[in-house]
Every structure is written in structure tokens, then in C-alpha cells.
Design a protein that fits this description.
Mean pLDDT: 89
Largest sheet: 5 strands, antiparallel
Strand order of the largest sheet: 2-1-12-11-10
Distance between the termini: 14 Å
Strand content: 25-35%
Structural class: alpha+beta
Oligomer: single chain
Shape: elongated
């Protein structure tokens, strides 16, 4: 099984810890003729596919290089503007490499704050009283597993979609959290978690799961 990432969200919805365990590398390089059949735009200092898709290149993918020259922001390494280059038909054909961008810290904070109201809405929509809220979200390429503690802190794992439940793993991580974070007399529940022992033991636990699965938890 593959664990992609792990997050801890505070009771008030703030991201207080995140750990990227396995980040699949998605890169697609193709030769294009003029004009391009999808739209590119500058978002967060990156050239991003904002409309249209083809051959595995989808909305949200970032332009990484043009004819083997790395793209940084809106410029190539040689100083040329990407959009001026792409708008000139005389420059074609062009070899363009696209890839899935790595999330920034600000984007992770934003996603954590979005999950908080979704969790609350799910609890309120339940026809049964005392709903536990969202425990699992399933998509084509991943599953999100959530465990809420008695204090309202949420533990979230994003993993490959083949795994049915990660309850045992989430509770094991909670034990590490209780041992190495909560026992720190200077820690508050809303504070970002900065604990080397917790980091080391979490990494070791996920490495163990990578090798032997959930059977030995």
C-alpha cells in the first residue's frame, strides 16, 4: 500500500502538522504545433493549464520546461518570457513538459481550512444524532481517511484508493501524538507541532507500513 501524505488539523480548523511521505512524479513531455489547444495562465508565479486537456495533461498541471529549458515563474532560464514565446507561431513546433505541481505550505493551509467546514456540514447532514462526520472520502486516484479525537483534533491520511480502511494506522499515529506531543508541558492544542521525536517515529511507522502493510500494527 502507498501512503501519500498525512495532516493534523486543529479543533478550530488550522493546519498544525503535515508530512509528505510519497509524492508520485507526474511529468508529460510532448511536441506541440501552433496553436495550442488548451489555455495557460500565470497562477501563483507558475504557468498553469487553466482550460482544456489532452493526452494526460490536465487543468492544474504546471509548465516545467520548453525545448528542454527549465521554466521558472513566467520566464525561461535564458530570460525569455514564456507567453511571448508561445504566442509566436514561428517558434513552433515546441517541446513542452508539464507536471503536477508540489503543493506549497499556503495551499496546504488553505485545504485544511476548507476541510473543516466540510466535516461540520457532513456531521449536520447526518440523519443520525452524534455523527462522527467524514471518516473517508473516495476519489479515482486516492482515498482520504479521517480520525477525529475527543478534543476535536483531526488526523487525516491521503493514501492509494485500494486500501479500504486505515483506522488502525490512524490510531497508532494518535498514540505517537499522545506520547511525544501532548506530554510536552509547553505544547498547546492550537500550536503547530514541532517535535523531532514525533517526526522520527511517524516516519519509521510509515516506512514499516510500506514494507509489511498494516498486519503488524
Amino acid at each position: 500500500m502507498i501512503i501519500y501524505s498525512f495532516y493534523i488539523v486543529s479543533k478550530s480548523g488550522g493546519l498544525i502538522f503535515n508530512y509528505d511521505h510519497v509524492t508520485p512524479k507526474v511529468e508529460i513531455e510532448q511536441t506541440f504545433s501552433y496553436p495550442l489547444d488548451f489555455k495557460l495562465s500565470n497562477e501563483n508565479k507558475r504557468v498553469v493549464v487553466s482550460y482544456g486537456q489532452r493526452d494526460g495533461i490536465v487543468v492544474g498541471h504546471v509548465l516545467m520546461s520548453v525545448n528542454g529549458i527549465t521554466v521558472t515563474g513566467q520566464l525561461l532560464e535564458d530570460g525569455r518570457d514564456v507567453f511571448e514565446l508561445l504566442e509566436n507561431s514561428e517558434n513552433y513546433p515546441l517541446s513542452l513538459k508539464f507536471g503536477r505541481p508540489k503543493m506549497t505550505t499556503n495551499e496546504k493551509i488553505f485545504l485544511a481550512s476548507m476541510f473543516y467546514p466540510l466535516f461540520a456540514i457532513a456531521s449536520q447532514l447526518s440523519p443520525e444524532p452524534k455523527s462522527s462526520g467524514i471518516e473517508m472520502l473516495e476519489a479515482d486516484t486516492f482515498k482520504l481517511h479521517c480520525f477525529q479525537t475527543l478534543t476535536g483534533v483531526k488526523f487525516i491520511i491521503v493514501a492509494e484508493p485500494t486500501e479500504f480502511t486505515l483506522d488502525a494506522l490512524l490510531k497508532k499515529i494518535y498514540e505517537l501524538y499522545a506520547d511525544y506531543v501532548l506530554k510536552n508541558p509547553f505544547y498547546s492544542l492550537e500550536m503547530p507541532i514541532r517535535c523531532e521525536l514525533f517526526d522520527q517515529n511517524l516516519h519509521a511507522l510509515l516506512e514499516q507500513v510500506d514494507k509489511s502493510g498494516l498486519t503488524n500494527l
